[in-house]
Amino acid sequence: MKTTELPRWASAFVLPVLNLLSALLVAALVIHLLGESPTESLRILIDSAVINPEGLSYTLFYASTFIFTGLSVSIAMKAGLFNIGSEGQLYVGGLGLTVVMLTLDHSLPAWLLIPAAMLGSAVFGAAWAWLPGYLQAKRGSHVVVTTIMFNFIAASLMNFIIVKYLIPEGQQNPASRVFSDAGAMPRLNEWFPVLGDTPLNVSFLLAIAALAIYGVMVWRSSWGYKLRATGLNQNAAHYAGVSISGMIIVAMLISGALAGMGAVNSIMGSTHYLSLNFPAGAGFVGIAIALMGRQHPVGIFLSSVLFGALIQGGFDLSLEKPNIPQETFVFIQGLIILFCGAMENLYAPAVLKLLNIRKG
To answer: Is residue 27 within 8 Å of 334, Cβ to Cβ?
Structure first.
């Protein structure tokens, strides 16, 4: 009997790998057209981003933020929502963290200050996601449209707040003052010196914990069952007693909180101050990570590390190979989004046909 649907292992593993390889093949062609060797470029990238301990540390540092934004998009997708607003929620989450820091960093010890700042980032991120969730649940406004709008509103609002209120007197850099040392996340090189002088910090461990909690809550709890039921069939979920509007709002609140938590790694783990445009597109990368990782904890982790490696390895590669500009790796990220998002089922018919041939 012929199979009409791909098995779970094929859709969750085989298709993403084929899509990724397709994106990399196109990227290799572009690098070749730029006059460089794709194989040598790949060797330099892997050595810089994975094999070298210090480079791996930077890769995991970038991945820490991407894990939170990937989880943000994923939890909304499980409810049938496409939250494109993680970028704005991450930005506003940074404001919540900064408000706590600027208010309490000289009066609280680190063991109280750091959790308070993390809570501030989560609360502000959740608050920024609440209104799009409410409008979707209660007014029927599509969450894609509202979250896109809220990204632009967040950018303008943050520009106004930072320039008007947060720049210290006498300074021109569009950023808040530097936080006290009590507000710095402990760095992992304190325990593992081989990592070198890099910003990889405890936020990476928090991101791993968030992945585990996400996996348990989504697949091993009654709430997760209701969440997935809402995303798969709202009518059936409503018939089973699930409050659809309530589930949409809660999912968006959690999504926004996770995006806001991404600011902890960027600000408390690295810069120690709030600056303009600090998200640097991490919220949009989260969309690609959620799609490529199939909203699964392991997939989200691997996708985050991949994008972190592209940033770290791409920076070093552009230094060694001047013909390959840094913008090339933005293009590669776009290719991955294209193949793993819009064209995610490109190879599905061929894989299904191959499986049926093997069965026959």
So the answer is: no
Closest residue by Cα to residue 144 from 204, 68, 63, 81: 81
The Cα–Cα gap between 54 and 267 comes to: 20
Smallest CA-to-CA distance from 253 within 14, 9, 75 is with 75
**What is the 3 state secondary structure string of 331-346?**
HHHHHHHHHHHHCCCC
Residue 298 Cα distances to 51, 134, 187, 303, 358, angstroms:
21, 31, 24, 9, 28
Say whether 175 sits in a helix, a strand or coil.
Answer: strand
> Distance (Å, rounded) from C-alpha 335 to C-alpha 340?
8
Query: Within the chain, where are the H helices?
Result: 8-9, 15-33, 38-46, 53-78, 86-104, 110-134, 143-161, 203-219, 222-232, 234-239, 244-263, 282-292, 297-320, 327-337, 348-359
The stretch 141-148 carries a mean pLDDT of: 94
φ/ψ (deg, to 5) at 73 = -70, -40
Euclidean distance between CA atoms 271 and 305, whole angstroms = 21
Contacts of 78 (CB under 8 A, 6+ apart): 218, 224, 227, 228, 231, 251, 295
- The number of beta carbons lying within 10 Å of the beta carbon of residue 232 is 12
Beta-carbon contacts of residue 17 (< 8 Å; ≥ 6 apart): none
The 10 Å CB-count burial string (b at 16+, else e) for 125-157 is bbbbbebbbbbbbeeeeebeebbbebbeebbeb
Q: What is the pLDDT of residues 155-180, one digit of tens each?
A: 999 999 999 999 998 888 899 999 99
Tell me the pLDDT band of 218, cut-offs 50, 70 and 90: very high
CB < 8 Å & 24+ apart, contacts of 132-139: 132/83, 132/85, 132/252, 133/81, 133/248, 133/249, 133/251, 133/252, 133/253, 134/249, 136/81, 136/248, 136/252, 137/244, 137/245, 137/246, 137/248, 137/249, 138/245
Q: What is the pLDDT of residues 263-289, one digit of tens each?
A: 999 999 999 999 999 998 999 999 989
The C-alpha atoms of residue 98 and residue 120 are separated, in whole angstroms, by: 8
pTM for the predicted model, two decimal places: 0.93
